[in-house]
Amino acid sequence: MDELAAAKAEADAKAERARAAEAEMEEERQKAVKAQAILDAQQAEADAEVQRVRAAEARRRIAVLEAEAATADDYADLTPRQRKARKVARMILAAGGNAGHVDVVALSDIEAAVGVGQTAAGDIRKEAQELLACGYHPATAYTPHNDR
């Protein structure tokens, strides 16, 4: 009987050790899951920072290009209306539009950008469309000859 009790006690001890090992493994798994979640959060934060830096650089480049375009417009001795039309043409191109698709820039955006009312914004957008249709592109500095 003592052998039977000893065997049972040993079996119970093995079962208890197995449960303890299983609990320890689960605890380690939970720690690993938490550590991975922390790493994922840190990576997401780093990715967001990279995107913020890229956006800031894009805004800086846009400002530089706008300043260069304004300088070119000054040099070309354009009227204020012609400058506004070119600015709207650049806005259309930046928004992925072209001469056949100028509605990518809302009239309200044009109103705000060039400081005009809705009717004038529509007229300026039409002028920008004509510029684009004639081949105007700020990157190549091409200006249609019939503009002046």
Could you please describe the fold and organization of this structure?
- The protein contains four helices and no strands.
- The protein is rod-shaped.
- It has 148 residues and is mainly alpha-helical.
Summarize this entry quickly.
This protein is mainly alpha-helical and 148 residues long. It contains four helices and no strands. The chain has helices at residues 2-75, 80-94, 107-114, 118-133.
- Secondary-structure element order, as H and E? HHHH
Share in helix? over 70%
Which residue ranges are poorly predicted, with pLDDT under 50 across at least 5 consecutive positions? none
| Beta-strand share of residues | under 5%
Radius of gyration, CA atoms, in whole angstroms: 34 Å
List the keywords:
4 helices, mainly alpha, single chain, 148 residues
Give the helices and strands, then pairings:
Blueprint (H helix, E strand, L loop, with lengths): L1 H74 L4 H15 L12 H8 L3 H16 L15
Helix pairs in contact: 2-4, 3-4
